[in-house]
């Protein structure tokens, strides 16, 4: 198939390596994946990972797993007839925090791959560590404590690196590796994140590519405070000692501060073996959550609520407002000034932008528990309670709420237990075992979860809980399909709930987008990087520094015009190109604005009543 210029996005996740192929109008041509457990069964992983000894908290995957997966993925893309020669840009998403350790021979091996052979057997000697610690690893508690102490506390660490210490974050993982296996640490030439690892493989030119700045924020190692952005000296010293700090910084390498910079061309190995064009460029990979953020092109004050096994909330901001409760990251598609140190040079190159990530354990797990306990395992019955009892007018008063912390939660840290209250005064509200009207059980958990997201996203946006609302929120994940959940989300958050939609040319209608967000998000970035690269070659400086959001909006507008009036008036047509508001706040929404401080007081009360 020939499609004009094409763009490739990869996603090296915990369980699979996925690829999305996009046309230059950003429509998705096709997707292919390699699933680790099923397709690479000889690694014996379950859910893509292996576990250390019982009680160790160690979770990891074999370093050769993604390399073999890349070989197999290439074969599958070829068998499917993907037009490699038309691909002009590639970028990769990777599971966040997870790190890859290169040996001293890595450069030589990467620079001399034989295109007549698969990549994996040739890379056997390229690593100083046989495993990739996974983000689910929790074996690094002592290292987290030492890093926190080194900067004087968790608030200080969050201020410096965007997050308080987390066992899965790369800094603690490197620290543990150095403690456990100092010889292998010493034999490490460079350390990559999964995203920069895949970027390095795609270039295969003898150079280990730099870590992307947005992804670097998931390491507890990157000093995010402007203008001193760089590897955080006190943390380097905590991990490697005063004498080893410089060496550790060298192992970590230079960070890519421009998400659309061309860091190389597609490797000769890919050109000779699969017919990729030498013109195809590679732009920095980024983390999977930053990549999802890009796929939705979240603008300032927009958010994402992902309702998967656990709930994750992303909030896009222009201000750095870190807090130990959540994670702050740099926006994954910033344009770097000529020098990171020189902030004045950033003028005309876009400003610093951030996104914040809140991770909750009590997401679908808790909702499912309530459904099973009170609603015969039926989402329809669960929804019936929600619809019957939800506020219908601005005068309705919310006077019931419930906190379902079945597992110790992350936000609020360590919260556990089930707490239900009835009464419109938080101080005197009655703690109850169960609500009299069983229908209130489903409404109470949803309202409580959504008021939590509103309260904390408001604080991120304004520094003051609940006073500012997100301007739009995207709903993703399994529970995002539930219309009643989306209704409460919209009313409680006080903003439209939106979804990405795609034009189905064969059926002549709009459908919810079913593509893999992470690989699509980085394919957008590859498209943007390619455009800027071509413009720079022509000396068109304005075009070479076009911001990501503007550029994607431009392409979407052109696509809308190209699809014509029939698509614009077809059922389910988007409100903006690519985005449809599935719910907007209804007449009951003001009841939630009035309930925020009441709900916050009850959350504090529940925490104080915890045994
Ligand atoms: P993962 O975190 O594994 O990617 P998904 O995004 O696929 O998870 O979401 C899975 C969750 O979605 C399940 O735990 C289930 O409770 C929830 N879910 C699926 N359908 C519905 C529904 N109709 N209403 C509410 N929750 C749902
Ligand atoms: C985020 C996190 C996970 C991984 C999944 O902090 O640990 O979402 O990024 O791949």
Automatic annotation (TrEMBL):
<dbReference type="InterPro" id="IPR018484">
    <property type="entry name" value="FGGY_N"/>
</dbReference>
<feature type="domain" description="Carbohydrate kinase FGGY C-terminal">
    <location>
        <begin position="304"/>
        <end position="499"/>
    </location>
</feature>
<dbReference type="InterPro" id="IPR043129">
    <property type="entry name" value="ATPase_NBD"/>
</dbReference>
<keyword id="KW-0547">Nucleotide-binding</keyword>
<keyword id="KW-0808">Transferase</keyword>
<dbReference type="Pfam" id="PF02782">
    <property type="entry name" value="FGGY_C"/>
</dbReference>
<keyword id="KW-0067">ATP-binding</keyword>
<dbReference type="InterPro" id="IPR042024">
    <property type="entry name" value="D-XK_euk"/>
</dbReference>
<keyword id="KW-0418">Kinase</keyword>
<keyword id="KW-0119">Carbohydrate metabolism</keyword>
<dbReference type="GO" id="GO:0004856">
    <property type="term" value="F:D-xylulokinase activity"/>
</dbReference>
<dbReference type="GO" id="GO:0042732">
    <property type="term" value="P:D-xylose metabolic process"/>
</dbReference>
<comment type="similarity">
    <text>Belongs to the FGGY kinase family.</text>
</comment>
<dbReference type="GO" id="GO:0005524">
    <property type="term" value="F:ATP binding"/>
</dbReference>
<feature type="domain" description="Carbohydrate kinase FGGY N-terminal">
    <location>
        <begin position="134"/>
        <end position="293"/>
    </location>
</feature>
<protein>
    <recommendedName>
        <fullName>Xylulose kinase</fullName>
        <ecNumber>2.7.1.17</ecNumber>
    </recommendedName>
</protein>
<dbReference type="GO" id="GO:0005997">
    <property type="term" value="P:xylulose metabolic process"/>
</dbReference>
<keyword id="KW-0859">Xylose metabolism</keyword>
<dbReference type="Pfam" id="PF00370">
    <property type="entry name" value="FGGY_N"/>
</dbReference>
<dbReference type="InterPro" id="IPR018485">
    <property type="entry name" value="FGGY_C"/>
</dbReference>
<dbReference type="GO" id="GO:0005829">
    <property type="term" value="C:cytosol"/>
</dbReference>
<comment type="function">
    <text>Highly specific D-xylulose kinase which participates in the catabolism of xylose. Xylose is a major component of hemicelluloses such as xylan. Most fungi utilize D-xylose via three enzymatic reactions, xylose reductase (XR), xylitol dehydrogenase (XDH), and xylulokinase, to form xylulose 5-phosphate, which enters pentose phosphate pathway.</text>
</comment>
């Amino acid at each position: 198939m020939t499609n004009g210029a094409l763009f490739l996005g990869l996603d090296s996740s915990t369980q699979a390596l996925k690829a999305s192929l996009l046309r230059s109008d950003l429509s998705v041509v096709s997707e292919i994946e390699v699933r680790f457990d099923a397709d690479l069964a000889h690694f014996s992983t379950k859910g893509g990972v292996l576990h250390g000894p019982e009680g160790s908290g160690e979770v990891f995957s074999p370093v050769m797993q993604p390399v073999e997966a890349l070989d197999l993925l290439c074969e599958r893309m070829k068998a499917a007839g993907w037009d490699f020669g038309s691909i002009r840009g590639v970028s990769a998403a990777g599971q966040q925090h997870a790190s890859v350790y290169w040996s001293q021979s890595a450069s030589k091996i990467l620079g001399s791959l034989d295109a007549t052979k698969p990549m994996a057997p040739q890379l056997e000697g390229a690593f100083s560590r046989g495993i990739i610690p996974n983000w689910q690893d929790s074996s690094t508690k002592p290292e987290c404590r030492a890093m926190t102490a080194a900067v004087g506390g968790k608030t200080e660490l969050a201020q410096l690196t965007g997050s308080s210490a987390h066992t899965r974050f790369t800094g603690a993982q490197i620290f543990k590796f150095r403690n456990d296996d100092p010889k292998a640490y010493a034999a490490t030439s460079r350390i990559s994140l999964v995203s920069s690892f895949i970027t390095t493989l795609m270039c295969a030119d003898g150079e280990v590519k730099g870590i992307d700045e947005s992804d670097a924020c998931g390491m507890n190692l990157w000093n995010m405070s402007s203008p001193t952005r760089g590897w955080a000296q006190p943390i380097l010293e905590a991990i490697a000692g005063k004498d080893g700090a410089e060496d550790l910084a060298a192992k970590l390498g230079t960070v890519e501060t421009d998400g659309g910079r061309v860091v190389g061309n597609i490797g000769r190995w890919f050109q000779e073996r699969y017919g990729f064009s030498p013109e195809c460029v590679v732009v920095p990979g980024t983390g999977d959550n930053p990549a999802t953020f890009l796929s939705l092109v979240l603008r300032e004050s927009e958010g994402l609520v992902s309702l998967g096994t656990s709930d994750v909330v992303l909030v896009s901001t222009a201000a750095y407002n870190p807090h130990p409760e959540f994670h702050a990251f740099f926006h994954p598609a910033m344009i770097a000034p000529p020098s990171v140190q020189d902030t004045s040079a950033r003028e005309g190159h876009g400003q610093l932008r951030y996104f914040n990530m809140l991770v909750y354990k009590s997401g679908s797990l808790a909702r499912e528990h309530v459904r099973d306990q009170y609603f015969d395992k039926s989402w329809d019955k669960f929804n019936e309670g929600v619809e019957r009892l939800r506020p219908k007018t601005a005068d309705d008063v919310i006077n019931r709420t419930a906190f379902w912390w079945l597992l110790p939660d992350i936000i609020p840290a360590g919260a556990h237990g089930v707490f239900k209250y009835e009464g419109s005064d938080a101080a005197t509200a009655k703690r109850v075992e169960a609500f009299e009207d069983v229908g209130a059980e489903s409404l109470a958990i949803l309202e409580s979860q959504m008021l939590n997201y509103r309260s904390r996203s408001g604080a991120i946006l304004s520094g003051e809980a609940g006073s500012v609302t997100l301007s739009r929120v995207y709903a993703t994940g399994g529970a995002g399909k539930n219309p009643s959940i989306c209704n409460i989300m919209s009313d409680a958050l006080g903003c439209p709930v939106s979804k990405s939609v795609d034009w189905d040319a064969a059926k002549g209608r709009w459908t919810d987008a079913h593509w893999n967000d992470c690989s699509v998000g980085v394919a957008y970035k590859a498209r943007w990087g390619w455009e800027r690269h071509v413009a720079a070659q022509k000396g068109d400086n304005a075009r070479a520094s076009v911001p990501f959001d503007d550029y994607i909006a431009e392409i979407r507008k052109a696509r809308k015009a190209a699809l014509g009036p029939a698509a614009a008036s077809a059922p389910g047509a988007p409100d903006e190109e690519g985005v449809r508001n599935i719910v907007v706040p209804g007449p009951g929404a003001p009841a939630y604005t009035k309930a925020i401080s009441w709900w916050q007081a009850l959350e504090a009360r529940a925490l104080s009543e915890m045994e």
